[in-house]
Amino acid sequence: MADICGMQVDYLIIGQGLCGSFLSRYLLEAGCSVLVIDQPVENSASRIASGIINPVTGRRLVRTWEIEQLMPFAWEAYSSWGEQLQQSLIRKISVLDFPPNPSMQQAFEERAAEDTYLQYPVAADEWKPFFNFLFPPGLIQPALSISIGTLLTAWRKELENRQWIRSEVFEWNDLTYSDSEVRYRDIIAKKIIFCDGVNGQQLPCFQLLPFAPNKGEVIWARIPGLPDSHIYKLGIHIVPWEGDVFWIGSSYEWNFTHDQPTESFRNQIEQTLKKWLRVNFQILDHRAAIRPANLERRPFIGLHPHHPSLAILNGMGTKGCSLAPWFARELANHLLLGTPIHPQADIARFTKILGKNSLE
Ligand SMILES: Cc1cc2nc3c(=O)[nH]c(=O)nc-3n(C[C@H](O)[C@H](O)[C@H](O)COP(=O)(O)OP(=O)(O)OC[C@H]3O[C@@H](n4cnc5c(N)ncnc54)[C@H](O)[C@@H]3O)c2cc1C
Fold first, then answer.
1. Which domains does the chain show, CATH number per domain?
2. How far apart are the first and last CA of the chain?
3. Which H, E and C letters describe 162-179, residue by residue?
4. Whose CA is nearest to atom 16 of ligand 1?
5. Ligand 1 contact, 50 CB (< 6 A)
6. 260-281 pLDDT, tens digit each
7. What pLDDT, in 10s, does the model give residues 299-358?
8. Residue 336 to residues 2, 77, 195, 301: CA-CA distances in angstroms?
9. CA dihedral 230, 236, 240, 241 (to 10 degrees)
10. What is the value of pTM for the model shown?
């Protein structure tokens, strides 16, 4: 199956966020034919994300799941793709973390004694012209910073040039499938792979997976003079974006009634910045997106246990930058070579639940 003119392809991919982009890259590199269907939206999770891979997260500063293998893999995946696309996609960066109170200061100091990603304290004087703070900052390094927007735009252009992408909305009702193929309008494919982010929870085939969407709001602000050498953290993150513009956020809400930005978030960020910053800032933009998160905080990867022509790459939650490259590779290898998927990520763990789905 390689003739795209007849719209017969090996794989039909729904979505061109981080997941669909990496998966299409790996399948195309392996010589497969691929068609991507993606309706671009400004507030997809990938478009709103700050693009940080932070090896140590949370109040307790614990290492993130599987970071020892995810981080070097991500470095290679984004660097090599950047070279191909002639774009700068990734750089190493340090997180300057300001403890908000004595107990967090103590926790940082204790964790720094046992984890090489952490350093406490670091010289504070050079930061005094920029920030008000009571306790000296610590450092998390190296973290990685990804230019997701640059990647998505450059890859989309490549796909468009070769007519491997359609900008349209995928409609479930136009899909039929058997165990060996799927048909969607004029397209016949061996498999369809859903990389549709938060919309995945509405698919009849996968809606019983324990999705738990999570809303995040973000502000972009101009902060002239603030060095773009670091990410700054004091409850919220200030992340270098472009020139003197910084990404500032974000919220993390399990309960929400709409996907739009709110006045209360903007006010809260404005107040925080006024207290924390000693330099001027000017708010430029404010947006919100929904993270495709889930209750287990582990991705949803693999073939539908009862319908082998349907597959999924989703559930990246707050960590798509590190999880999407690794698990896109794992899924591609699984499809092509039959290699196993990490048991904590493989949707085979939901075989029973997914059996309850009435697709007929
Ligand atoms: C505020 C915020 C900050 C974040 N910061 C970070 C961070 O610093 N580091 C990190 O690792 N992660 C971060 N994340 C999480 C990260 O954004 C996600 O894990 C990741 O982007 C998910 O990628 P995805 O490809 O699964 O989904 P998406 O980015 O949502 O992509 C899905 C794509 O599918 C398309 N689509 C969906 N349904 C259809 C349909 N029916 N027809 C056609 N097209 C369709 C959508 O338009 C979209 O283009 C953040 C998220 C948010 C909201």
1. 8-47+150-208+296-355 (3.50.50.60), 58-147+212-291 (3.30.9.10)
2. 28
3. CCCEECCCCCHHHEEECC
4. 320
5. yes
6. 999 999 999 999 999 999 999 9
7. 999 999 999 999 999 999 999 999 999 999 999 999 999 999 999 999 999 999 999 865
8. 15, 19, 18, 15
9. 160
10. 0.97
Contact, 106 vs 136, CB < 8 A?
no
Residue reference for tokens 């908000």: 100
Distance 327 CA to ligand 1 centre (A): 15
Q: Does residue 249's CB lie within 6 angstroms of at least one atom of ligand 1?
A: yes
- Would you say the CB of residue 289 lies under 6 angstroms from ligand 1? yes
Q: Output the CA 41–ligand 1 centroid distance in Å.
A: 10
CB 303 within 8 A of CB 313: no
Rounded CA gap, 52 and 41, in Å?
21
- Ligand 1 pocket, 24 CB below 6 A? no
Rounded (10°) angle between helices 67-85 and 148-161: 50
